[in-house]
Amino acid sequence: MSLPPWASSLGAALGEPLVSLETVSGGDINEAWRLTCASGRLLFLKRNATAPAGMFSAEARSLRRLRDTGALRVPEVVALSDELGHLERGARWLLLEWLEPGRRRADFDELLGRGLAQLHGCLASTWGDTEPGNLATLELDNRPCATWPDFYFERRLLPLGQRAKALGHLGPESFRRLEHLGGRLGALLEPAGPPSHLHGDLWGGNVLVSPEGHPVLIDPSCFGGCREVDLAMMRLFGGFSERVFSAYRELAPLAPGAAERVQLYQLLPLLVHLVLFGAGYRAPVEAILRRFG
Q: Are 185 and 152 in contact (CB under 8 A)?
């Protein structure tokens, strides 16, 4: 297979030529490639010719932040087009270490649950972050707020609701319910606890298996928030056994009323999906708004 024209510039960024590239599954947003360097080193490339500015920079920051906690394995960031300069007109990319998929250890679920509890035990300095974030192609406003309910509404639910309404995916009555919900979140979301480092997009596809059989976290969108956000996302689309949640609670018991807040926190990823993928997600969003709004 002949290498694409952009391979030489990527090799120049790495300081060694590439000898082969192989497309791999990597989601719906980006191209994904397995790269083999002349030295034999294997790398994972995410590439997007239409990526908005800052998308891969935000992902790289999140990966480094999770990796620094030491709670669970996270791929190492090798190189980033936004840090090295645009080596190819119009295209942005992110290079990570390649992790050969392994087989789950018998205690994989327990390792994941305990690792997540350890991650959430690493406290953030504020509700939000000092840098903007991205979730897929959506830029997220991470400017800190004084309280968790304020951040959750002003930086997440309200902007996403406004986008969904502008796209025609959320009707006026549902949007009014969302606005009304904003005034009730102070009571509904307590106690939030201190701000934790969150993965921010923790569905089943963002947990891989290392060569040794351990859990690996990928594709994060980190910010300081209530840890129940990650746990609610995990329950939204499935893929996690109750053993994961039991192991988590053994190390980090949940605050009273957590079960009642699950749907409120699932409203965030559902609004994201409504904005990105359209009206197929309208019904579950409207059901939550009717219940709480």
A: yes
Per-residue pLDDT tens digits for 196-216 = 999 999 999 999 999 999 999
Give whole-number Cα distances, 62 to 69, 106, 125, 210, 250, in Å: 11, 29, 15, 19, 26
Strands 215-217 and 224-225: unpaired
Full 3-state SS string of 171-224: CHHHHHHHHHHHCCHHHHCCCCCCCEECCCCCCHHHEEECCCCCEEECCCCCCE
pTM, two decimal places = 0.94
Q: What is the dihedral of CA 139, 222, 108, 242, to 10 degrees?
A: -80
Give the CA angle between residues 121, 126, 127 to the nearest 5°. 90
| Coil, strand or helix at 165 | helix
Which sequence positions are flagged as catalytic?
A: 201
Q: Mean pLDDT throughout 163-170?
A: 97
Model confidence over 235-248: pLDDT tens digits?
999 999 999 999 99
- The CA-based diameter of the chain, rounded to the nearest angstrom, is 60
232 CB burial (10 A radius; 0-12, 13-18, 19+):
buried
- Residue 58 parent element (H or E): helix 55-69
Using the CB atoms, write b or e for 44-74: b if 16+ within 10 Å.
Answer: bbbbbeebeebbbbbbbbbbebbbebebbbb
Packing angle of the helix pair 282-292, 258-277 (nearest 10 deg):
140
pLDDT at 161: 98
| 129-149 confidence digits (pLDDT tens) | 999 999 888 999 999 999 999
DSSP state of 15: T
